[in-house]
Amino acid sequence: MYESMLSFPGSLFSELDRLQRDFDDLFGLxxxxxxxxxxxxxxxxxxxxxxxxxxxxxxxxxxGIDASKVDVTLDHGVLVLAGxxxxxxxxxxxxxxxxxxxxxxFRRAVSLPDDIDPARVNASYHPVNPTSMExxxxxxxxxxxERKLTTAGDDTRALMPRVDVLEDDTGLTLLADLPGVPRExxxxxxxxxxxxxxxxxxxxxxxxxxxxxxxxxxxRYRRTFTLSRELDASRIDAKLKDxxxxxxxxxxxxxxxxxxxxxxx
Length: 265
Description:
Blueprint: E1 2-4, H1 12-27, E2 46-51, E3 56-61, E4 71-75, E5 78-85, E6 95-99, E7 104-111, E8 131-133, E9 136-137, E10 149-152, E11 163-168, E12 171-177, E13 186-191, E14 194-200, E15 204-206, E16 210-214, E17 220-227, E18 237-241, E19 244-250
């Protein structure tokens, strides 16, 4: 009954991309169809809308949330998704180098067609199962000096996931939002001093779904970072939970601070 959006080259994502370009040409880069009463594209969570002959399908890409704290309501034909995404606890010994992910209260609204039956509206949450994974290291980390993590590479044909980068005395923690990416479609690779994060979205959609509006218009995420020489790429630990990838990148022992005892003369 269901098939992946990505199961064939002329996929729904291609149609969504074409549709959004048409809207951009018609309304400008910030234009939106009148059926969406919500914040500008880029708000959390991103939303795609489509319809079949018998239903309207609304997909919210909402990583890192507690589903029990999300309210879905329908009032006078307006479907509202509201809740709060809790920010991670960061102590005073941790330095934040990059902060791109959205936290706090959110509210998205979609105006539905007049013929929708309110009694038959239903909502479901599909989290990505918690899992750990292997980071492929192609060769030894090079010693070319760089800043801790800097973006590189060409991401023009993939979505660039939002990330937070935190540093403490023993290493770096990178948190990346990858909603819709299951473990089996996520690839992490280290080659030289480059760390690649790439994942394919595996959204399931009903037959005969036609796109109406899209904020997620490409079927994959990709982002590349440059690792500095004090980071030990051979010991990277990776976990994926609820659409959030957590990478822990330790520092080499010689790069970690140590206390030096002062002898009394």
